[in-house]
UniProtKB/TrEMBL annotation:
Sorted UniProt keywords: Transferase
CC per GO annotation: membrane
One GO term of the biological process aspect: phosphoenolpyruvate-dependent sugar phosphotransferase system
GO MF annotations in UniProt: transferase activity
Domain named PTS EIIA type-4: residues: 1-127
The protein's name: PTS fructose transporter subunit IIA
Keyword Coiled coil among UniProt keywords: no
Superkingdom, taxonomy of origin: Bacteria
Signal peptide: none
Amino acid sequence: MKYLLLVSHGDFSQGLKSSLAMFAADKVDEVIAVGLKNGEAVDSLATRFSHQIADLSDNTFVVLGDIIGGSPLTTVCNVLAQKELLDSSIVLGGMNLPMALNALMMKDILTGEEFVTTVLAEAQSSLRQFKPSSTDDEDEDEDI
């Protein structure tokens, strides 16, 4: 099985997993969320994550991290490397909800560079300014 692994500082990854369940409840069991807790040492994160994936050694991972080069993502990648799982994993940074949802839905359909291009394009296209507009005074009391 291919798992989506969400990696973050704090509880961001767990919150993102919760949000994914709203859109893809049938696939949320394929999502693993791990975050570096405030004040936690990276060695503790490594141990906790290693235990979390102990029974998943025959699987592959799509890893989404909040910050490329951040302690949580580098720690998780080190653990995957120690378990000889990193070479078969895809690792992307700068995760957001559209990116994670697209990765979850496409991880079993697309592979390699096609998967990476599709997921990154979705993440980038979701980044833009939202400019609400009201058409007339009657609409002022309506929700946007």
